């Protein structure tokens, strides 16, 4: 009964309402009602048109997410999920002759439409994705191994099976962010309280590669394998001199 009422109301609003574009990069509280639900990791924002307003298009800045195919079509609700503040997935509840859903994923800087099965799979993974701060690593999330292959101590962190690494950061400084890639493990070389070199083992659709990062002038930058090991040797020599 509630669904029938919503559809009838939608037809009335479509006939007499003010047509507008929802831009999720801005806040237009005169036309859109916002509801935000914040958690430490996964949060979401719900966008609903105010009374008398018809959402006929959805954008994020200059990027189009959805637009009506027919004049009797409108979005009655749009929900965006963010992981650690970064947009990941969204869905739109659309009213036409009946109510139906459209699903989206934010990938490589743009919103792409998904079918419901893929959306549910991606959303389920989000619940297990974790942001790793290399200065405050949760021991409950990782199996940790210390070894000394280069003269200075190295620490390997392997996430336990149910977790997936979403991002690796040094405080607020982002080092690496996952898209379709999976970080199997990462290595901090040297003092973990003052990290200078980080090595990532990445699985990209069953193709494996190593990524190398160095902290220079307080910022993390990707470097070549040769530059990485040259710096590692330099740190090893410094450690040997101190000893």
TrEMBL record:
Endpoints of the signal sequence: 1-17
Alphabetized UniProt keyword annotations: Signal
Pfam family, one: FAINT
Protein origin, superkingdom: Eukaryota
Name this polypeptide is given: Signal peptide containing protein
């Amino acid at each position: 009964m509630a669904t029938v009422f919503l559809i009838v109301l939608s037809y009335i609003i479509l006939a007499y309402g003010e047509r507008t574009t929802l831009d999720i990069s801005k806040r237009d509280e005169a036309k859109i009602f916002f509801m935000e639900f914040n958690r430490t990791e996964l949060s979401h924002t719900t966008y609903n048109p105010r009374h008398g307003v018809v959402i006929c298009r959805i954008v994020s800045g200059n990027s189009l997410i959805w637009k009506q195919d027919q004049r009797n079509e409108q979005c009655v609700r749009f929900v965006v999920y963010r992981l650690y503040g970064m947009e990941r997935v969204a869905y739109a509840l659309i009213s036409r002759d009946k109510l139906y859903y459209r699903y989206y994923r934010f990938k490589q800087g743009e919103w792409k439409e998904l079918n419901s099965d893929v959306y549910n799979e991606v959303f389920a993974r989000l619940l297990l994705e974790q942001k790793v701060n290399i200065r405050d690593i949760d021991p409950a999330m990782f199996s940790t191994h210390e070894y000394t292959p280069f003269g200075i101590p190295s620490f390997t962190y392997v996430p336990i099976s149910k977790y997936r690494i979403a991002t690796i950061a040094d405080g607020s400084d982002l080092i690496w962010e996952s898209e379709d890639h999976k970080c199997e493990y990462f290595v901090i070389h040297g003092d973990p309280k003052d990290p200078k070199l980080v090595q990532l083992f990445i699985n990209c659709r069953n193709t494996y590669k190593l990524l190398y990062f160095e902290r220079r002038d307080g910022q993390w930058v990707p470097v070549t394998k040769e530059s990485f090991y040259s710096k590692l040797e330099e740190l090893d020599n410094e450690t040997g001199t101190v000893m």
